[in-house]
Each structure stands twice: as structure tokens, then as C-alpha cells.
Amino acid sequence: MLGLHKFMSNNDKKEQKDMGDGIARMSRSLARKIATHMGLLEAPCAFQARIGSAKGMWIVDVDDDGLDDDDWIETYPSQRKWNCDFQDVHHRTFEVREWSRELRSAALNTQFIPVLEARATAPQRMRDAIAHHLANGLREEIGGQLVAMTHPTNLRGWTHRGFDRSTLGHVPFLGALPEREEDAVSYMLDAGFDATKCRYLRDIVWNSQKRQAELLKAKMNIKIPRSTYAFMVVDFTGTLEEGEVQLAFSSKFQAEGESDTLLDGIDILVARAPAHFVSDVQKVKAVFRPNLKRLKDVIVFSSKGKSPLADMLSGGDYDGDQAWVCWDPEIVANFTNAAKPIEPDLVGQGYLRKSNPSFQSILNTTQDIDGACTDFIHSAMSFNMQPSYLGIATKFKEKLCYLERGVDSERAVALSTLVSLLVDQAKQGLLFSREDYDRLKRDMNMRGKEPAYKNERSSRYEYRNRDGFMHILDYLKFEVAESTIADVLKQFYDALHGKGVEVYAWDKDLARLWDEFESQKNDSRIIGRLMTALRAQVSDITNEWKVVMRAGAKNDHTHLEFAAKVKEIFQKWSSFQPSPELMASRQVKPLLDSWNGDPALSKWELLKASTMFKLSYEKSYPMVWRLAGQQLAWMKAMMSRGALDVSAVAVTAEMWSILRPDNKRIAALHARRQIGHETESLAALEEVTEYDENGTQIDDA
Questions:
Q1: What's the start-to-end Cα distance of the chain, in Å?
Q2: Which residues, in sequence order, are CB contacts of 674 under 8 Å at separation 6+?
Q3: Do residues 253 and 266 lie in contact, with contact meaning Cβ atoms separated by under 8 Å?
Q4: Cα–Cα distance measured from residue 42 to residue 191, given in angstroms and rounded to the nearest whole number
Q5: How many helical (H) and strand (E) elements, i.e. helices and strands, does the chain have?
Q6: Neighbour tally for 664: CB within 10 Å
Q7: What's 404's DSSP letter?
Q8: CB 145 within 8 Å of CB 209
């Protein structure tokens, strides 16, 4: 067991906890071969995996120079779940679940915030520091899109941020445009539309931004630039002293205009969710030890002391748990550690009871082996079918702390203890019923109040007490987030809709095909009848759209009623064909492009779309785009041959669903536009590279 040494007394050995619960080592050679098999460009220093009966975390041996081809792996008793002889080939297979990766700035879990305030030497300064990061993050997210509106390529890169494309192999459509507004924006940008000129594109960008702002406020995503999440591992060499940790990065960690490759000689905070006790966030000293330099993108904890640091963080261990690490000076300097509170013995007090009968104990009371098996299965199923109170207790604890204005009262500690026990209820064989829960609340006179920050909106009367007190999460959501979002959205709206801003519903490129056929109708009776029929169909569809939308089908892709109505009208529009008499004409039949494998892009469908656009672009342009957007985008792309004399590029739906913008290339293009080199060849952009502190080019593939 890691943590024991030969000079320990027997009493010390009894009190000593395993300092390496769930973790072991492997050779560097084996780590390289695993990485190669997985297709990784570099071998990570840590793998979360399973092999045979063991599961947990494996790190490379820092004492292994990796020069030989010696492949080995070790397991510790804390990792082994059963006795394994490794005879089966599957038991000798290293099954990787996760591995250490390049670290990025992280968001602050809202569970940590009350603890940070509770342990702050100056609570108001802690509020101000967190509020500063929240406001900055919101301005960056919302204001950043305003900056991106300056050019379609910038907006394309920005739109891709914060959401993943469909995993269906294609992007779902509603009518003739992608269902999600973010995808619709990308679709139109890819076709050559510009949000500073196209009214419909501007409007969906605005709607998307408003919805994103509401999500940002609801999620309370407070990004702390100088923070990250990293796997917790342990120092097997015993180099780190108790209270010391090491965090080194495989590449430069950039935050707030600075970059670091390691943290050394500074205090940092470490925590793990869920943080129920005030001791679940700890201040420790970050140091760098050269012999541990191979352990990058993980946080290395000391193996010295009587209790592992991971265990102090919400009962964590080293089998794959991640720690939130923060080195923001305003937050760290204002924080003081708390000792772990004394937890009440809820089992000894009878609120929870152990029930873990072994099969042998059942067999001793039953004459029949079949009966013993039946009783054992019945006992196991009955135990696992009991309702879980983990979520109920967790939510009530939040309400109690909200009412009591703190997280470290005797009642809060009791509920935190209960929650920590219920997390491992199945493993420990603990019984806990509704009666037990009610008795605990009654005995300790526990009461709670629904937090205002759980609501989408709230008045000051609801979240500000008579003495002026506001819970920190209420303050952040309703005072900081709401005012910041309102301010930035107003700037965004003024930039899109203000005086002097010229965007147009009209686009001559989309009416060219209509113009071509309209000019032929005086010379051809067939074409004249065709265009008359098209006009009538557009008029009918437009009238039906107005009636349906006026009847209450909210113009929002997230509402099922709207989606159903769009599909119904789109089916009518897309199925409209020339009359049989016109279809027999040599002038009309070729319009259907029988050779084309995609009927939606035949010349007939393009003509329909062009006609609908020409006749309805002013008063019914949302309908025009929802019913004919695919064809309009196709025509726009065909007209987008630019200054570089390059044609539009054909991409299949499956390939388009996996494409992502190259933000490095977008930034380079933006920089060249700023200095007037807009038409410079793309090959010249290869000169825009990044270098590390040693002058080595960084590859962001």
C-alpha cells in the first residue's frame, strides 16, 4: 500500500490511508505502443483503463528512461476487483477509457461558489472577482459575435463555437433549411451570403444570439481563464512533500495574455465536484520537480501524509477522478483552508442501516441450496429496487443552505454526510427509507427555501432579503448576468438594426432565373402558362402560410407545432409540378432534369424558388427561406465566383456535417484584410505560424 514505510509504528500503520487508491504505473515503452495503436501522435502520460480484474489510472514510470523496449504494467490491490489469472486473452487486453490531454481553461462549477465565498477572508472581494469573470465571459461570448459580423469567414468560425454538429451523418433539415439556427447560419454563409447584407441571415443570427444569451444566463458558465480540469495522479517517488502538488502543461497554457508551461512556487486551489463540505476546496502549493517532468497535463499529488489529498476533495481517489485547479490570484489569495468537519454517525444513530448479507449467511439458515439461491436473488433485487434519495437529499441540502445563508452549519454538515453516504449506498449495502429521511429532518429541525436562482427570472423582492442580503448565486445571475447580457445585447441589436445599417431582403442573384423565364413568356405561350401557374401556386402557399402562422404556430424551430406546420406546407410546395399538358411540352419537360439524382436541385425546383423569392421576398421572406432556402443557397453559390476566380465547391451532406472551420486560417485571413492584403493567395497564409519558446513551430493538426 502506498504510504506505508518501515519506520512506522503499528498504530501509525492502522491510521494510515492508502495514498495511491486506484492508480499504478506502466513502462514508457508500453505507453508509446498503446498510443500508437490508438492513433495518437504523442504518448500521454496517463491512461484511465481496465485490464483483467484491475481498473483505474496508470501513469508512466518517471524513473523509466524509455531507452529499452521493456513492456510492463503493474496493478495494486486497490485496483483489483477479483482474482484474475490472466489466462484469457481478453483479460490481458488494456481497455482504454480516457487519457490525459492538452489542458484548457475551465468553467467554475456553481457548487464551488458558495464554498469559495464561505472560506473567503473578504467575501465581497470574492464576489467581485467571480462577477468580473462572469461579466467578461458573457461579453466575450456575445460581444465576440458582434466583432465576427465584420466578415462571413469570421462569423463562420464563431458560429461553430460552443456546439457540436449532428452525429447522424447529416444535419437535420426543417423544410429547406437546417433545423437548428446555428446550422442554418453556417449553411447560408457557406453558400456565399453575408449577414451584413442579407436581412434573413441577419435576423437568424440575432435570434440565435438571443437564445444563446438566455442559455448562458441559465447555465451560469463562469469561465476562469487561469483554471482547468486535470486527472489526479500521485507521486510514486515521494518527491513532493505533503501539501505540495505539481501541474505542468504539454503545450503553452494561454490565459489573459500570458502563457505558462508549468506552475511553480504559487498557491493554487484544488477541488472536486460535488463540493458539499467547506473542506472540499483546498489551497495547496504548486511546485515543479524535474524528476516528475514527464507527468504533464495531470495534477500530481503528494504520497506523503496520513490521508491522500484526493480523499479530502469530496472523497475522491486516483482511479480517474478529475480535479478543478485554479491559480487565479484574486480568488486564491482570498481563500483560507478549512479542516474537514466532524461528520455525525448517521449509521450509528440509526438513520441508515447496513444490509449486506453474504450468500454463506443465507445458506446457513436455509436447508435447500435452491431456496438459498432464491432468497439471495430476492434479497439483492429488493435492495436494488428501493428508491434512491440521493437526488432528493442533494436538492434539499441546497434549499437548506439557501435559507440558512451558509454551507457549514450543523444541519448542512449532517445533510452533506448523508449525501456522501448515499453516493456509495449500493456498494456499502445501506438501507435508507422515506421514514428515515423524514425523521432526520424532523429531529434536526431542517427547513429549506426554493432558491430564486433556480428560476429563469425573478424580481428583487424575491431574492433580496429585508436586510439587503443576496445569495451569491442570485447576485451573479440576476444582478451581474442579466445586466451584462442586456447591455451587450443592446449593443448587438444597435449594430444590426441601428441607423445607417443597410441590409436587404432583396438579392438580384436569386431572381436571375425568374427574370430569364419571365422575359420568355411573351415569345412562348407554354412558358407564359407555366409562369402563370407558378404565380398562382406561390400566391396560394403564401396565403396558407399567413393563415397558419396567424393561427398560433409560433415562428420558432424549437416549437413542435411550428415544425409540424412547416413540414405540411413544405410538402405541398415541394410536390407542386407542372400540369400534365405542360409536362408534355419540349420546353418544360427538360426542366425536371431526369438525369439529376437530386430532384430538389433540378432547374424546375430552382425556378420555383426564384419565383417565390421574386414575388414574396418583401412581405413573407421567412416563408421564402424556410420553403426554398436550399435552392436559393444553391443559386447564390453558383453566382459567387469571386476575385480569386475560384468556383464554388461541391460537398455532400455527410461530409458537410463533419466539416469545421480552421480558426487559425480565419484569424490569418482577418489579419490580412486588416492590413489590406485581402486578395493574397491562400498559399501565403502558410507563413502565418506559431512557435513555442524554443522556436519550434507548433502544429495544431
A1: 42
A2: none
A3: no
A4: 38
A5: 27, 17
A6: 15
A7: H
A8: yes
Q: Which residue in 47, 54, 60 sits closest to 97, CA to CA?
A: 47
**What is the C-alpha to C-alpha distance for residues 203 and 215, in angstroms, rounded to an integer?**
19
State phi, psi for 173 to the nearest 5 degrees.
Answer: -110, 150
Count of C-beta atoms within a 10 Å radius of residue 258: 10
> What are 517's three cell numbers?
423565364
DSSP structure string for 433-480? -HHHHHHHHHHTT------GGGSS---HHHHB-TTS-B-HHHIIIIII
In 3D, which of 407, 333, 346 has the Cα closest to residue 112? 407
- Residue pair 402/117 in contact (Cβ under 8 Å)? The answer is no
Model pLDDT for residues 38-71, shown as the tens digit of each residue: 999 999 999 999 999 999 999 999 999 888 888 9
Q: How far apart are CA 60 and CA 73, in angstroms?
A: 9
Residues 6+ apart with CB under 8 A from 201: 185, 188, 189, 193, 194, 195
pLDDT, tens only, 539-550: 999 999 999 888
Amino acid identity, residue 230?
Answer: A
Question: What is the CA angle 387-392-394, rounded to 5?
Answer: 130
Q: Alpha-carbon distance 203 to 194, whole Å?
A: 12
Contact 322, 272 (CB under 8 A): yes
Check whether 564 has a pLDDT greater than 70.
Answer: yes
Residue of 253, 280, 286, 248 whose CA lies nearest to 267: 286
How does DSSP assign 613-659, residue by residue?
Answer: HHHHTTT-HHHHHHHHHHHHHHHHHHT---TT--------HHHHTT-
| pLDDT tens profile 25-43 | 999 999 999 999 999 999 9
Question: 13 Cβ partners below 8 Å, 6+ apart?
Answer: 4
Cβ atoms of residues 190 and 104 within 8 Å: no
For residue 178, report the phi and psi dihedrals to the nearest 5 degrees: -55, 145
* Secondary structure of 299-359 as H, E, C letters: EEECCCCCCCHHHHCCCCCCCCCEEEEECCHHHHCCECCCCCCCCCCCCCCCCCEECCCCH
CA distances from 647 to 639, 650, 672, 687 (A): 9, 9, 22, 25
**Stretch 392-415: mean pLDDT, rounded?**
95
| Residue 198 DSSP one-character state | B
Report the distance separating Cα 73 and Cα 58, nearest Å: 8
**Number of alpha carbons in the 13 Å side-chain half-sphere of residue 177:** 30
Report residue 15's pLDDT band, with 50, 70 and 90 as the boundaries: low
